[in-house]
Amino acid sequence: MAKNNSKRKPYWVGCDLGGTKLLTTVFDADFKMVARIRTKHKSGIDVKDGAAYIGDSIEAVLGEAGTGIAQIEGIGMGVAGFLDLEQGMIVHAPNLGWRNLPVQHELQVRFGVPVSLINDVDAGTYAEYRLGSARGARCVVGVFPGTGIGGACIYEGRLIRGKMASAMEIGHLCVQPGGNLCGCGRYGCLESVASRLAIASQIAAAAYRNDTPALRKLTGTNLAKIRSGVIAAALREGDPVVDKIVRHAARQIGAAMVNPLHLLAPDMILLGGGLVEEMPELFVNEVDTVLRRLGAASFLKDLKVKAAALGDEAVVKGAAVFAADTVIKKS
Ligand SMILES: [Zn+2]
Hints:
Largest sheet: 5 strands, mixed
Number of domains: 2
Shape: globular
Strand order of the largest sheet: 3-2-1-4-8
CATH class of the largest domain: Alpha Beta
Structural class: alpha/beta
Bound molecules: zinc ion
CATH architecture of the largest domain: 2-Layer Sandwich
CATH superfamily of the largest domain: ATPase, nucleotide binding domain
CATH topology of the largest domain: Nucleotidyltransferase, domain 5
Radius of gyration: 20 Å
Order of helices and strands: EEEHEEEEHEHEEEHHHHHHEHHHEH
Distance between the termini: 12 Å
């Protein structure tokens, strides 16, 4: 660990470039957060200004932490988007409209410290493995249902990644061949039946039919407003149709997880993301119940299904810890 080596500098930077916001943080050597800055993306940031946008935010958070780049050992950058890990490039960040940003190189040139790049779901799962709910797991498979459904796997301490891109795209496991159209352009992906967007679409239709009295009072049929917190509130108010829709989606996730269960024999399946944060017991119970019904007994003996613990800090923390583990391993 960094703290045991007196030559190490005392701080790490972790960034989370999400679909709608940039979270930039400074951690000490024990990965306690020292400072954070959250910026909502303005519309129309050009890709040629992308690295400057992130870099300026890093400068600002260092100021906030009362430190300078000379005290930083490395920068970890978690990104919601498609990455080329060999080139250190953001290939496509759909919400920002960015393509082919050599972010690793540009930030390394600007700050003169190692920069590592990691997919945001990989970072979230890595943080839970190192510092959260999945500590000590031999093999943890993370599933994060949100607007889409992200997935990741840490196997005996190593993050499973492709040569260039991230791996474990659980949201795009085909669970209903010929089923609903998915955001990826294919049909029948898990994401198209069990993401927050899929759940909210079904709830909006039920609200339109006047089948969800509590939720209808909260949001009407406006799909964009049917977010995780509203869905959880409608459940607390006792909307039986909302309960049915959410539990059905959770069971679909459970059924899909039988495949990685039998492929990887994980000892932990970790559930996270906005929906799970709002309704941890519902998701953990439904996924666990379905897995125990459908999985082979020998794969279930040591399996635990748990909810993530680190909330919205998971990605920045995971990006920083992954940078630390990578930099320290290389040096
Ligand atoms: Zn898909």
